[in-house]
Amino acid sequence: MKKSIGKPERMYPNPVVMVSCSNGTKDNIITLAWTGTVCSNPPLISVSIRPSRYSHELISSSKEFVINIPDEKMIEACDFCGTNSGRNIDKFKELGLTKEKGFIVSTPLIKECPINIECRLDK
User: What is the Cβ-side half-sphere exposure of residue 49, based on CA atoms within 13 angstroms?
Assistant: First the structure.
């Protein structure tokens, strides 16, 4: 069999997550597909967010975020959060999503997501 050189696109599809973030004053949600487990002990998860994104600014400021794993009922919310900037709109309000207090971080969780992973920024 002839081998081909792999390209990052061959890793698609990745699971879609909704990352909530906050600077303590303004909250935001960004949809990401570039996430994954890096290590299990200590537990580390990677997320990739371009520095030009508003969420990058919020996470850099607060040093925390929440990975919210949506179910199939949230497909339209995932699309909306991935195609609109939180610089201009309140995505929680626009989508009618419920902010839920976490146990570890002050960034709000998305109550409608069945799984929420509270994270502190490592690097």
Answer: 26
Token digits of residue 57: 């600014």
Rounded CA-CA distance 54/105 in Å is 19
Query: How far, CA to CA in Å, does 106 sit from each of 62, 75, 109?
Result: 9, 26, 9
CB 68 within 8 A of CB 81: no
> 């969780």: which residue's tokens?
109
pTM for this structure?
Answer: 0.88
Q: How far is CA 86 from CA 28, 30, 43, 74, in A?
A: 6, 8, 29, 18
Condensed to tens digits (0 to 9), the pLDDT of residues 100-120 reads 999 999 999 999 999 999 999
